[in-house]
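FORM 7B: Structural annotation worksheet

SECTION A. Query
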Amino acid sequence: MIADSQPIFFLSVILGFVCWGLVAKWYLLPLVAALSFERAVTPLLLLHSFRYIGLGFLVSGIVAPELSAAFARPVGYGDLLASSLALLALAALRFGWGFAVPLVWLFNVVGTVDLLNAFLQGRLANVNPGHLGAMYFIPTFVVPALLVTHYAIFTLLLRPTPAASPARPDAATRKDRPGPPGSAR
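SECTION B. Predicted structure
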């Protein structure tokens, strides 16, 4: 072995958060702040729809056979659940279903808890980063990006909708208002 894998793994995760945090601060958050809720949240949900890739934690050959199934199963199936909720929320937004915003909330809470739980379970199970195999890049590169985008979605969900101007009561139409449909004015 060239070096102890735990410190390298930890450093990689930290740097992933630093780099993705800078991307969000300098590019993502200013961009989504200028868009309507639907236009801002759609590409973020599309990104999360690819979380089915987490099923790779269940495939021997992608991960080492020594990787604990007690860790791999909840991680893989949690990602599948988050992917499914993201796709359902996307459909609800695109088709204008009245429960679209609650679905985005559900996705965002479940998806965030899933990622944080995966980190916790990995620590509790003392998962050897080398046993992650090709999936090593999920917690070091992908998960920081996903958690940063979860933060961006929370900021969108909590963003107030500006009141319509008295001179133009139609100024805050459904497609132009920044906050989520039905949020506080």
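SECTION C. Observations
Residues 5-158 form one domain. The two ends are 58 Å apart (CA to CA).

SECTION D. Sign-off
Analyst initials: ____
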